[in-house]
Amino acid sequence: MNAIRSLCLAGLLLIVSGLGLSRSHASPQGAPPPNPAPGGAAQESPTAKLTPDDIANGKQIFAAQCAGCHGFDGSGQLGPNLHGVLARRGDAGIFAAVRNGTGAMPPVMSLNDQRVWQVVGFVRTLGDTGPVEAAKGDPEKGKTVYDANGCVVCHAIGMTGGGVGPQLTTIGRSRPPKYFYEFLRDPGKNPPAGYALVRVVSKDGHETTGIRVSEDTFTIVLRDVGGHFYSFDKPKLKTIEPQPGQTVMPSYGNLSATDMDNLVAYLSSLKGAQ
Ligand code: HEC
Ligand code: HEC
Questions:
Q1: 214 phi and psi, to 5 degrees?
Q2: Which end of the chain is more exposed for a tag (fewer CB within 10 A), N or C?
Q3: Contact between residue 177 and residue 190 where contact means Cβ atoms under 8 Å apart
């Protein structure tokens, strides 16, 4: 494992699920989350022992390790809103989500159990209220906008659609509405991890631009807009240049406000078959 690989972990997990390959489950790290004691009185959750200092530490850890995806106030950005998650998952469920990962969220490897409990303590303080954002458009009309704008060429929902961009089958579960508004207007500004565009030039002058699928010391694999994969031996390349701010996903900033609201409502409604 090299550093680049681990940096790309989040992206790889997203891509692998996008390609429909089965993804090996990350092995749980550290102690398993505590279960209620079998039969007897419910065991006290480790969060009951947290001091105000622990919660303050948890807040700092959240700002450093979670806010990039969940927002500083926990109201969601690349990842979902966490207000109300305590009621849904309980202490042990939040702990497990952080320790083992959940859905499109990679496990957080860099924290020991004590620090994960501190961050769980902070997530508890978010409570149920707070800024919960609901999509304001009409999802059915949004599907028409989706169909009319060629999204299906690059994105699959269920079994239908292309594979250049990530699958959107359950995107409404993992991204809040405000992410869609920002992303659709300016997709290059903050592409999801793993979709960075890279341009390589071989020593004999051939250029290829594509999404970086994987990279290690000796090879880099790119995928172009057509979905074709290219593997390069690094020693044969003259340059490897990331293209920050560029993406193959077109900007949809020219949609009318109503179309945009409806499209966001449609995307937010995509939560997978249940
Ligand atoms: C790389 C982005 C990313 C980072 C970093 C991240 N998360 Fe997440 N998180 C997500 C995504 C995406 C989901 C939604 C997963 C799904 O259901 O597909 C999620 C889901 C969760 C959930 C479950 C939410 C629910 O409604 O069930 C919890 C709890 C959570 N994250 C807590 C955290 C905490 C605490 C941290 C920091 C220690 C953290 N996350 C770091 C992206 C991230
Ligand atoms: C030419 C191919 C292409 C078309 C057309 C396209 N996309 Fe994308 N889309 C991508 C790629 C590639 C990504 C990955 C991120 C990036 O490159 O910025 C992406 C990312 C996304 C994401 C972010 C997914 C995530 O995990 O955060 C959403 C949402 C999205 N597209 C929705 C749409 C919608 C809605 C349309 C139509 C209005 C559309 N896309 C049209 C290629 C496309």
A1: -160, 160
A2: C
A3: no
Strand order in the sheet with 219-223: 229-233, 219-223, 207-215, 197-202, 237-242
Please indicate whether residue 250, judged by its CB atom, sits closer than 6 Å to ligand 2: yes
List, in order, residues 6 or more apart from 41 with CB less than 8 Å away. Answer: none
From the CA of 61, the nearest ligand is: 1
**Does 137 sit in the ligand 1 pocket, CB within 6 Å?**
no
Which CATH code fits 197-242? Answer: 2.30.30.100
Verify whether ligand 1 is closer than 6 Å to residue 149 (CB atom): no
**pTM value > 0.70:** no
> What are the domain boundaries of the chain?
3-36+44-125, 139-190+249-268, 197-242
Rounded to the nearest whole angstrom, what is the distance from the C-alpha of residue 184 to the centroid of ligand 2? 8
- Residue 100 CA to ligand 1 centre (angstroms): 11
- Architecture field, domain 3-36+44-125: Orthogonal Bundle (1.10)
Is the domain spanning 139-190+249-268 CATH 1.10.760.10? The answer is: yes
Position in ligand 2 atom list of the atom nearest CA 145: 38
What integer pLDDT is reported at residue 203 of this predicted model? 93
- The reply to whether 197-242 shares the fold of 139-190+249-268 is no
Ligand having the closest approach to the CA of 186: 2
* Distance from Cα 247 to the centre of ligand 2, integer Å: 9
Are the C-beta atoms of residues 50 and 114 closer than 8 Å to each other? no
The confidence score (pLDDT) of residue 229 equals 80
